[in-house]
Fold this protein.
Amino acid sequence: MPRYHRGMSLLRVERLSKAFGAIRAVDSISFEVRPGEIYGLLGPNGAGKTTTISMVCGLLKPDSGEVLVAGEGFWSDPQKAKRIMGVVPQELAIYGELSGRENLEFWGRIAGLSAREAKSRATELLEALMLADRAKDAVSTYSGGMKRRINLGCALLHRPQLLLLDEPTVGIDPQARLNILEFIRNLLAAGTGILYTTHYLEEAEMLCQRIGIIDHGRLLAEGTLSQLQERLGGDRVFVLEADFKNTSPEAWEGFHQRFRVIQKSERQLVVAAIGARDPSECLKALLDLPVQAENVTLKRPSLNDVFLQLTGRELRE
Amino acid sequence: MLRVLLSKDLRHALRNPLPWLINLIVPLSMTLLVGLVFGRHADSGALGRIRFAVVDEDKSLLGDLLCGVTNQSRGGKHFDPVFKVREAAMREINADKISAVLIIPTNFMRNYLTAHEPVSLELIKNPAESVNPAVLEELLGVVTTALNTISRNFSSKFPEWQTGLEGSGDYNKAFFFMERTGAKLMLTPKYKNFINPPLVSYETEAPADDSTRAAAAKTGGSQSDAISGVFSYLLIGFSGMFLLFIAGSAMSDLYRELRQHTLERYQTLRDSLAPFLASKAVFGVVMLLLCSGIMLGGGGLIFHIHWRQPLPLMALTFGYACFMAALFAVFVALMPDERRAAVLNNLAAMGMGLAGGVFPPEGLPAFVRQHITPFLPSFWFVTTARNLQDGGMDAAWGWAAFKLAAVGAALMALAAMLLRRRFQSGLRT
């Protein structure tokens, strides 16, 4: 099986678009995933994450744009591209009546392994996924977290170089989620490139080397966590609480030269300082604004703040 | 690949056998039910004795002769007439003790022989029964045809007959007239052709060759063959339709794969859907062969049907099973909504069954019979299987089986293409 060095793209997506009737589910998205990297596609439900993954793995045919897997167009040889990929769908795609081992062996055989290879690889994965003691039990008797782990394992039998994970931790408890995230992080050591979609900010922050923020089918921003935070003008934001019902920052003299408004509501104003300025100076300037300030908080900007700035709404909405 | 997929489906079926059992129980129940209703009549290779009442209000010698025909000699094997007055006969039919009441009205013989006015016999059928009253009605049709024939050809002798038969009712005279009439009928070819064979009967066509004729003779003679011919005709037709229902149910396993996203996962690993669909078709075909075995084999045991060409019949059934499995795979590809598909599957099965000749195709509307039925694979199966059973069209079963299997293969390719297209345009369950 060929190995891919860090500089090259395992997956390159160029101006990918897909519409369902009048709805543009994905609108000219471009990004790339390199070996040994987790690229996170972060966005709310309905943003176009699953549609993007479906096009990348060939389940959906794009209206326009191109998917290159290891430098070759996906549609020029779909079976070759599929051999390089492992796909973990958002929904559980396993057989409840079969045991964990049987599921793994079956999907291994479908991926092209011999019976012996599938058996030995299933044993390895059952150990790694901490399911060896339940290997012979029917999957229908597993907990939600265990089912998610088997669902993940079924995509790994053929040691894919590119792993597409579509919200693999949806609907499970925090401990099970941590186990899965740890397992995924360990896959990087083998040089696997991972495309990881999620709507959990913490997962993207914890796991991904680079993050693309997607909403309404468009990729709004992309970069490392610090690059995205930089977009807000530094490593801190100020949250000012007051009554903003009858006032507007546009009316305040010199405000827009010193601060960038990230979000404004009737009770809250989130701003970032423009340029490298002393935090105490910024605080003083905010307290001098012509409003009765009730509270001013200083915090590190999160991905949610970036999302807020890009879309005008919180990711959790 | 196919072996891996089949072994997965086999494991699934063993651990969750309910859908399989249900699909097997349906034909079993149907066969048992039909067997319970009709099977006892088939025990002797015939319908059993049909009990009916004769109300002879004419009290003439001709009435006695008519009654005698039914309970003498071979008639006695099949009919059990009882002589009643009208009220008693009606009480019995209302109590469901007899199959019909035959009324010979007053002055029947006189009016028949003098031809002064039209005469009629009255048959009151038991509405709670279906087969026996129908048999009696057909028999009465034969009797009236014979009486009409005699009336048309021997009317010049009727005055002499009337003199001899009226009054004291001399049986010797009656016998003399019958003997003379019978001899004349048998010697005159045109009469013989008109009366024999009867216009209505349950006889089927004679076996095509000597060997099958001999085999038929060994297995019980023409009477039981005639009865088993009726049941085999019906059984083949019903099987043709019920197998379609079962095929729809068997192939619904594809919906399970769609529902639990395993078909989707398969597509992320394999470019071609054909092996996956083929494995489902193999399971569907096995299920259908088992069901057809239950219906045709079990029905054969119950009704003492001797399947004359079992191997060609099996090959034909195999071809039909291939066609049915592929047809309903296409339906799955066309209709992602499982509940809506179930209704449409049933309608399609019923439509194909009825238009394909479950019942005698002669009963279908002319347009359907001429422009639709000949193109239906259900018709190819039913007609060819019936012809095989009748001993005719020896060479055509191979072509019919090939046609059915070929259409099945084409439909399976279509199903794979349609399903792939639906996935690529955004099929979600």
User: Anything to note?
Assistant: Residues 58 and 79 of chain A are 10 Å apart (CA to CA). The two ends of chain A are 44 Å apart (CA to CA). The domain at 233-300 of chain A is CATH 3.30.70 (Alpha-Beta Plaits). The first helix of chain A runs from residue 49 to 56.
